[in-house]
Automatic annotation (TrEMBL):
NCBIfam families: PRK02399.1-2. InterPro entries: Tobamovirus_resist_UPF0261, UPF0261, UPF0261_C, UPF0261_N. Residues 3-177, 184-401 form the UPF0261 domain. PANTHER family: UPF0261 DOMAIN PROTEIN (AFU_ORTHOLOGUE AFUA_1G10120) (PTHR31862). Pfam families: UPF0261, UPF0261_C. This is Uncharacterized conserved protein UCP033271. It comes from Halanaerobium hydrogeniformans.
């Protein structure tokens, strides 16, 4: 039977980890405890001791104790725990993981959890779970549970919280997973509110033709998650119609997916159809959070928490150059489809971001920079949300996948 990994610092939180371990085992599951503590003696004996974790992280536990450098120790033990957990999973020894901690424990626990595939139960009880969890969760399905109180002993309040976490991971591991439907090729698509009509129509057509489509919201994390799943080999084809995260990375908006966005499919020979959806906008928070330097620009208050800024001529030129450079790395079949009558719902005649000149610079630069020996360039006298455009990109992706 695969076990539940119980990962944490047994020198500082051993009582709590023992409590969680016993509840999981009371549910009929086996556990394997991984000790990531450094300085003190463990509260109880782990199957994988701290010297083994330190060694996996590239150091000896004796050196860590001698250095007495908390930051360095945390880095070593995080890396070591991640390597140990990855090896246990690859050997078929664990089917889920739970950890508890404050800032150090959360870093160690979630660093290891990120090494496990999507779908493997991951529960992190953390004093930080009520704040910004993006640095810890990243693009993985880590369940963050707020500890409410500091994790220091199993008192009358914390015991209930820790028990809930233990029952949660046990239930996830024991639960009967739904029977998979007929396996169909998996397509990744990107969408924003302003490209929804296009993506919905394309998804409908693809699913009618035997494909399964998963849609990623282009909010930074969504793009990162898609790129990761492409790299991990889950995705058979990509319908990357909404490349707006490139704008935020270039200009400094709040929804950047990082510098590697739009590269995974190209580098991994995954067939892709790409478009320029929502390259007319950069995303910021509430309007009063807009940087001073942008306040004279074309601004659109999307809702109380989201403010959009129209990309200008210079930015559109740069975006096209960035996009062309990334797509020109393609080792597989790639098509770039340009919607010449507008790239978003609010980039159309009479709409607040309609920008014929900006779009022209974007399209002209793409025409100039795209290597058409590697990328098929297709132009449509259509708006991105026109039904005809949506069907054309869906059909093109099917063609590329069938001929791959």
């Amino acid at each position: 039977m695969s076990k539940v990994a119980v990962l944490g610092t047994l020198d500082t939180k051993g009582e709590e980890f023992l409590y969680v371990k016993e509840i999981i085992e009371g549910e009929g599951l086996e556990t394997i405890v991984i000790d990531a503590g450094v300085m003190g003696e463990p509260y109880f004996e782990a199957e994988i001791k701290k010297d083994m974790v330190a060694k996996a992280g590239g150091e000896s536990i004796e050196n860590l104790i001698e250095k007495s450098d908390r930051g360095y120790s945390m880095e070593v033990m995080s890396n070591g725990a991640a390597k140990v957990v990855e090896e246990l999973y690859e050997a078929g020894d664990i089917a889920g993981i739970i950890s508890l901690g404050g800032s150090a424990g959360t870093t160690i626990g979630t660093t290891a959890m990120k090494k496990l595939p999507v779908g493997i139960p991951k529960v992190m009880v953390s004093t930080l779970a009520s704040g910004d969890t993006r640095p810890y969760v990243g693009t993985k399905d880590i369940t963050m549970m707020y500890s409410v109180v500091d994790i220091l002993g199993a008192n009358s309040l914390s015991a209930n919280i820790l028990a809930n976490a233990a029952f949660a991971v046990a239930g996830m591991v024991k639960g009967k997973k739904p029977e998979p439907k007929e396996k169909r090729p998996l397509i990744a698509a990107t969408m924003f509110g302003v490209t929804t009509p296009c993506v919905e129509k394309a998804r409908e057509y693809l699913e009618e033709n035997g494909y399964e489509v998963i849609v990623f919201h282009a909010t930074g994390t969504g793009g990162k998650a898609m790129e990761n799943l492409i790299e991990e080999g889950f995705i058979a084809g990509v319908l990357d119609l909404t490349t707006t995260e490139l704008c935020d990375e270039l200009v400094g908006g709040v929804l950047s997916a990082g510098p590697d966005r739009l590269e995974a499919a190209a580098k991994n020979s995954v067939p892709q159809v790409v478009s320029t959806g929502a390259l007319d906008m950069v995303n910021f928070g509430p309007i009063d959070s807009l940087p001073e330097e942008f306040k004279a620009r074309n601004i659109y208050k999307h809702n109380p928490t989201v403010t959009l800024m129209r990309t200008n001529l210079e930015e559109n030129k740069e975006l096209a150059e960035i996009m062309a450079k990334k797509l020109n790395q393609s080792t597989g079949k790639t098509a770039l489809v340009l919607p010449l009558k507008g790239v978003s719902m609010i980039d159309a005649e009479g709409q607040p971001f309609h920008g014929a000149e900006e779009d022209q610079v974007l399209f002209d630069t793409l025409r100039e920079k795209i290597d058409q020996d590697k990328v098929e360039l297709i132009e449509k006298e259509l708006h991105i949300n026109d039904e005809e455009f949506a069907l054309s990109v869906a059909k093109k992706l099917i063609e590329l996948m069938e001929n791959n």
